[in-house]
Each structure stands twice: as structure tokens, then as C-alpha cells.
Amino acid sequence: MAGFSLRGLFTRRGLIAVAAILGWFGLTVQLYLILLLRWEVGASLLGGLVNFFSFFTVLSNTLVASVLTCALNLRISRGQAFMLRPAVSGAVAASIVLVGLAYSLLLRHLWHPQGWQWLADELLHDVMPLLFLLYWWCCVPKGELRFKHIGLWMLYPVLYFAYLLLRGNLLGLYPYPFIAVDKLGYPQVLLNALGILAGFVLVSLLLLGLDHWLGRRQSRPL
């Protein structure tokens, strides 16, 4: 039986494994904290689970951890092949970069988490965006993205926003202050959403440009 090897840890596959573990760990800690708080106040744990998956940060980090896990080739399947498509990895990269930017620009100053919440916060908003961007840069085949992909990628934040409006209308709960219709009103919330969508498109265009540039570099003869 092979022993633990630092050399094995720092192979490309080993680094992807570390990134995947950190992603799932951050999500697990955040879920535990939400459920613990619900338990302490006697609220529904099922409601806590729904609340957990109502955050764009959680959904995007789940996609990140899933892609990284698929990249380990632990099991060959159609689902794995789909998740590893450059267009899918590009969509996930755009989404998780948006998570990091939006949090730093709009939300970080609103609270100061401590302890395990701080750890989960750092992993989901800072560490995983950087790690997945590094994975996308080094491990995802380049030169396959097209402008049409950005239109498809936009469906994710648009459908998510529509879900938040529907959920907020039914429950009066909004996971982010910049989409709180009860406090800001629909005109301001729609304006905020358009601004964030514009940021997503800009990030996507940047990734598209990098994809084309790196694809040309890789195709040049030595």
C-alpha cells in the first residue's frame, strides 16, 4: 500500500483534489451553521435547507465543487463529461468570479463574521473563486468558447433572480439586501439586478477573451 506523498499531493490531480475538498468543506460548514441556528431557535430544519440553497454563493460553490470532483475522474459518466465541457466550466468560472466580486464590493462591509462563520465566509467568497479560476486557466481546454455561450450562461443568474422574486413575494424573505423588494421597491431592485447582470456579462466577456488568447497560444507551433 502506497504511503502519503507530498510529491503526489502537489501533482495537478492532487491540487484539484485539495480544491474540491476545500469547496465541499466550506459548503458543509455553512450548512451546519445554518441548521444549528435553526435548531437553536426551534425553526424548521427543512426550511434551513431551502434557505441554504437560496443563496447564489451556495449554488455557485456547489457547481464549483462538482466540476472539481468530476475533474478527478473518479467515475466516468455522462454527467461527468457534461460538467467538464469547456462551456460548462466557463459558465461556472464566470459565476464564481461574480460571487467573489459582488461579495467584496456590495456585502463584505455589512457584517464581520467570527469563528467558523468567518472560515466558511472566506472559503466560499475568496478562496474558491481564486482556486476555480486557477483551475479554469490551467486545466480547461481553451479556444472552444463562443459568444453564443454567454447568452446561455446568462440564463443561470436570470432564472435565479426570478426565483428570488417569486420566493420573496411568497415568504417575504430576500437573501441579499440589494434585492429586498419590501425595502427598496421593484424599480430599484430591477436596476440593481441589471447592474449585477452587466457585471456577469463583463466577467464572461473577459473569460471569452482569455479563452481565445490562450487557445491561440496553445495552437502555435513550437
Brief summary:
The chain is 77% helix and 0% strand.
Structure characterization notes:
- The protein has one domain (6-219).
- It is an all-alpha fold and 222 residues long.
- It is 77% helix and 0% strand.
- It contains eleven helices and no strands.
- The chain is globular and about 60 Å long.
- The chain crosses the membrane at residues 15-37, 49-74, 86-106, 118-138, 150-170, 190-210.
- InterPro entries: Pr6Pr-like (IPR049713).
- This is FAR-17a/AIG1-like protein.
- It comes from Pseudomonas saponiphila.
Q: Secondary-structure blueprint of this entry?
A:
Layout: H1 6-9, H2 12-40, H3 45-52, H4 56-70, H5 78-83, H6 86-107, H7 115-139, H8 147-153, H9 155-171, H10 181-184, H11 186-219
Helix pairs in contact: 2-3, 2-4, 2-7, 4-6, 4-7, 6-7, 6-11
Summary keywords:
single chain; about 220 residues; mainly alpha; 11 helices; disordered N terminus
Q: Poorly predicted ranges (pLDDT <50, ≥5 residues)?
A: 1-5
Instruction: Report how far apart the termini are.
Output: 41 Å
Percent of residues in helices comes to: over 70%
Rg from C-alpha positions? 19 Å
Number of domains: 1
- Major β-sheet profile: none
Global structural class: mainly alpha
Mean pLDDT: 92
Number of strands: 0
What gross morphology would you assign?
A: globular
Strand percentage lies at under 5%
Secondary structure tally, helices: 11
In N-to-C order, the SSE pattern is: HHHHHHHHHHH
